[in-house]
Write a structure and sequence with these properties.
369 residues; Rossmann fold; seven-stranded mixed sheet; 2 domains
Length: 369
């Protein structure tokens, strides 16, 4: 039996290849790029290096990208869009890497090789950065190259026990009517961002229809290592951590039975505070240098509380990576790779329910005007 050849993709800001992992076997990587040596080494360990070019996106040329890909995936640096950052926006030093990517798309378009679809993944702060001006500029750039544009806000918590909302901007030169309509991922933030767009940009908008996944059936407790497989902090260190919690937060660790939670240390108006969540979700993973302290795991049982730092493997599981995924040797490096990544199950859901139906030729499509 014959089968269609796999769809092809370019993976920009590839990190450890989590978008590649999420896209899966129906997709063939035609090109990947990242400039971070640790992430590049991790990518090569897991996927090989024949498609990967290490270096600054600004130093790439269209000749580095072979053929015409069905999809360009870009999880561009998010620090300048983050609600926790300085909000420099598209002019920020890190997020300006997006323009290095975009100039390649424009050059490919000039050669009639622009990808049929583009996905740009970033923090939700992109929707409101500079009062919505950055989101408008991004949508306008995509529309100017003949793409129809829509956005979805997806929280990784729908798939794995980690609170990690992200915005996914899907731009396509074709639109299939059956892939448009209502979606639970058209959040108030996405609708407000659309409302702020001027009429000419709204004309290129698409409300992509992405269904909700099945109810998640895993919790943080299922993701963490066995108690005897990790090193715990001393009782004195744990006591100091508890002393930084408000009475309400300490009370969360006094419930009957076994309670598993995660803690971030944050600076508040009244000084440093330790804030614990015990709702079965980890807080959003960040890189060790990402502006907040490294996440701590706490386990309370029979009135006793123990604490320790989250491991790299636990972080990888929260990103939906299998235990066979090869991580860097140090925990700091491992969390650097996974904390900067995109959750693989989210990519898989998007690919299965939108990208593959959109780009495979089994149903009629409407070309963008």
């Amino acid at each position: 039996m014959s089968r269609d050849p796999p769809l092809t993709f370019y993976e920009f800001f590839a990190g450890g290849g989590m978008a590649r992992l999420g896209l899966g076997q129906a997709w063939a990587c035609a090109f990947a790029n990242d400039f971070d040596p640790v992430k590049v080494a991790t990518y090569r360990q897991n996927f090989g290096g024949e498609d990967l070019v290490e270096g600054d996106v600004w130093k790439l040329s269209p000749a580095d990208l072979s053929g015409r890909a069905d999809l360009a995936w870009a999880s561009s640096p998010c620090q300048d869009f983050s609600l926790a950052g300085a909000r420099a926006g598209l002019k920020g030093g890190r997020s300006s890497a997006f323009f290095g990517f975009w100039r390649l798309i424009e050059a490919l378009a000039a050669e009639d090789r622009a990808p049929r679809a583009i996905v740009i993944e970033n923090v939700v702060g992109l929707l409101t950065s500079h009062g919505g001006q950055d989101f408008e500029a991004l949508c306008r750039a995509l529309a100017g190259q003949g793409y129809r544009v829509g956005a979805l806000e997806i929280d990784t918590a729908r798939f794995t026990p980690q609170s990690r909302p992200r915005v996914f901007i899907l731009a396509s030169r074709e639109v299939k009517p059956e892939l448009t309509g209502d979606s639970p991922f058209h959040t108030p933030a996405v609708r407000a961002a659309f409302d702020r767009l001027p009429a000419d940009v709204k004309a290129a908008w698409v409300w992509w229809r992405l269904p909700a996944p099945p109810t998640r059936n895993t919790s943080l407790a299922a993701m963490i290592e066995e108690d005897d497989a990790v090193a715990w902090r001393s009782d004195a260190d744990t006591a100091r951590l508890l002393s930084l919690m408000s009475p309400a937060h300490r009370a969360r660790l006094q419930q009957p039975g076994r309670t598993v939670g995660t803690v971030f240390r944050r600076t508040r108006a009244d000084g440093q505070r330790a804030e614990v969540r015990t709702d079965g979700l980890a807080g959003c993973l960040r890189t060790p240098r990402g502006g907040s302290s490294r996440q701590t795991v706490v386990v309370a049982e029979d009135g006793a509380v123990r604490s320790r730092l989250m491991t790299g493997r636990e972080g990888a599981r929260l990103m939906g990576l299998p235990d066979s995924y090869v991580l860097p040797g140090s925990t700091t490096a491992a969390l650097h790779v996974v904390g900067d990544g995109v959750a693989a199950p989210v990519v898989r859901w998007l690919a299965k329910h939108l990208l593959e139906p959109l780009l495979l030729s089994s149903a009629p499509a409407i070309a963008a005007e």
